[in-house]
Amino acid sequence: MAIAxxxxxxxxxxxxxFKVTLLSLLLCGGMxxxxxxxxxxxxxxxxxxxxxxxxxxxxKNMVTGGGVMSAKxxxxxxxxxxxxxxxxxxxxxxxxxxxANGNDAMPERARLGAVEEIPVGKSDFQIMVAIPxxxxxxxxxxxFKASGFAGKVRR
Length: 155
Fold this sequence. Notes:
Structural class: alpha+beta
């Protein structure tokens, strides 16, 4: 009799744990389905990347390294191909910049800038960057990509 009662208690605890687990899984699944797709991170392919010195006073008195080293200002331009079907907002631009000697011009930064909005399809983009003045040209731009959101994100 004691064994039967023990088995009954065990089964009741098992089913109680099972119900809680099932309810938790259903709740998590429901949240995933109902979560707003606007927060989805969207990857954007960037092509035809090139650079040119900043025009006018855009890079005047530019410094890097906490204001210690003088810098040159460059505008990096290219084409963004947004195939997501939605406008992408707050897109961070990532890439690597190397000098003429193959040295990383910005070794501690892969995020180079941001673009407020990238429309659906192909469009132009540009960002400004500060490169230490002693880095020799020509610069080599590699591994450029963008990542943003398919909905507006508060800053």
